[in-house]
């Protein structure tokens, strides 16, 4: 633990130095690329690591932990921290903290480079409203200036505003030929507003999506487990001729990438041109709206997911059956037990211990199985009375995805982060219930 603490402090010191040096670089070199912070951090690590090694000679044996710490912090800790942070802000496409290119307007800089006139704003929206200032005077807020090419934005502080003009706190950067100006789309903390918005519209998004997510994961586990169990028991029969051929053929749906399989099924289930409905038409049956009706779309998802998932369960069943001693079946046969009695009295009880973690992990996977929803139905079809981001087949994860990247025609990362936190707590609660029901905690205590 002491070694981990020292390595974390080393990384923090190098990151701090990298950030300071990159800020200094940006002040001198305005067009410096953002990755300079990584370059300076890496150079700081190269210099600080030998110093730490000489100060604590014993820590050299623990340097192998350093890459793992970097990856954990970069790809696990940082995303979690950002998600939690954004959940309490209004961070979105509209409030991104970046210059608003859509609000860019013509600007004229005075000779003393202290006043920026905005001719197009003289008779339009008041400047405080246009600039989204925190105060009526706009003192301390930020104005973004561009040259004629509008290639590199330069941020300057505002001292005060007048009618159609902005007085800067310091002269505009030398060499900048100002032609345009715009505002910063700043974001800030809004407390629990995102969560209040989610629960205020719970009947149109949260609860129907949550219930379908649970139902989707539950029925997928049941159907796939039953199909895999039945096929696994049948194919494990050593007296079955050609069983290796059957295994290979039934294994193919799992071997083919899901992206290809789902797109194939999407074409097959097309209401107008799919081969499934064409076949039903030849039989004199009506075409089924497999992907165009909310109920049939759910059935289609379960069916396609069965196609994708049963080979895994079948393989797991065959592997588990190989661990059961054949002497048990031989003794049961001598005692006069039928094949069905052997299955219910020997096979299923002995498979329970092997299948419990498989079923739990399968439920957890399908609870967040974004791929099949996105590829097969994209969350649709639309359903009356529901949010545009939470349609009939959307699960919690696809709802969060839609909110983050397609909410009301823009991005709402803050609301999506709040949804992610809700998904986390719901998943945690369901996992605890599953573990409790499966006796995992009792096994751990033993």
UniProtKB/TrEMBL annotation:
<dbReference type="InterPro" id="IPR035906">
    <property type="entry name" value="MetI-like_sf"/>
</dbReference>
<comment type="function">
    <text>Part of the ABC transporter complex MalEFGK involved in maltose/maltodextrin import. Probably responsible for the translocation of the substrate across the membrane.</text>
</comment>
<comment type="similarity">
    <text>Belongs to the binding-protein-dependent transport system permease family. MalFG subfamily.</text>
</comment>
<protein>
    <recommendedName>
        <fullName>Maltose/maltodextrin transport system permease protein</fullName>
    </recommendedName>
</protein>
<feature type="transmembrane region" description="Helical">
    <location>
        <begin position="413"/>
        <end position="435"/>
    </location>
</feature>
<dbReference type="GO" id="GO:0042956">
    <property type="term" value="P:maltodextrin transmembrane transport"/>
</dbReference>
<feature type="domain" description="ABC transmembrane type-1">
    <location>
        <begin position="210"/>
        <end position="434"/>
    </location>
</feature>
<feature type="transmembrane region" description="Helical">
    <location>
        <begin position="295"/>
        <end position="314"/>
    </location>
</feature>
<dbReference type="InterPro" id="IPR035277">
    <property type="entry name" value="MalF_N"/>
</dbReference>
<keyword id="KW-0813">Transport</keyword>
<keyword id="KW-0812">Transmembrane</keyword>
<dbReference type="InterPro" id="IPR000515">
    <property type="entry name" value="MetI-like"/>
</dbReference>
<dbReference type="Pfam" id="PF00528">
    <property type="entry name" value="BPD_transp_1"/>
</dbReference>
<keyword id="KW-0762">Sugar transport</keyword>
<feature type="transmembrane region" description="Helical">
    <location>
        <begin position="36"/>
        <end position="56"/>
    </location>
</feature>
<dbReference type="GO" id="GO:0015423">
    <property type="term" value="F:ABC-type maltose transporter activity"/>
</dbReference>
<keyword id="KW-0472">Membrane</keyword>
<feature type="transmembrane region" description="Helical">
    <location>
        <begin position="63"/>
        <end position="88"/>
    </location>
</feature>
<feature type="transmembrane region" description="Helical">
    <location>
        <begin position="248"/>
        <end position="265"/>
    </location>
</feature>
<feature type="transmembrane region" description="Helical">
    <location>
        <begin position="209"/>
        <end position="236"/>
    </location>
</feature>
<keyword id="KW-1003">Cell membrane</keyword>
<keyword id="KW-1133">Transmembrane helix</keyword>
<dbReference type="GO" id="GO:1990060">
    <property type="term" value="C:maltose transport complex"/>
</dbReference>
